[in-house]
Amino acid sequence: MNAGVVELPTRRSTIRVARALGPLLEPGDLLVLSGELGAGKTFFTRALCRALGLPERVRVTSPTFTLVQEHATRPRLVHADVYRLERPDEVRDLGLDAARDDGAVVVVEWGAPFVDVLGGDALVLRWSMRPRRLALYGTGARSRALLLGLQSVLELAPAPEAPYDSAGGSGGSE
Fold it and tell me: Higher confidence at residue 173 or residue 117?
């Protein structure tokens, strides 16, 4: 399976996806999140952090201005937002590929144009608003294995086998 779609009619359904994905993640996995502003990327990341053991009392906010935040989950989660970055060297300078090498799960908002710079083999999650749904695409063997694991739990519907959108740069291109 290279792609799947799940409907997200409620916030609870987004939490359900995060809870299904959390136990499947391994150190070094890469998740790339795309969708309109306000689509639920940070909300999903917060739910994923909770699924990976981060206590409710610890805030999980968007790293829009800090660019990168680390969370003491198991495995450790590094959350980045590259919305304002335009060039591959700017993304490379964040050290996210090194974080993957060190065993972190790396979650990157607006990262689709930079999958290769981030080390490749990403599970790309793309939110759409009307209707509210999440399309998931695997770009390599490991991310396709994650999709298969999610399929057994979430009953993903088939998605177009179109590749993730790697065109564009920063801003609202995703």
Answer: 117
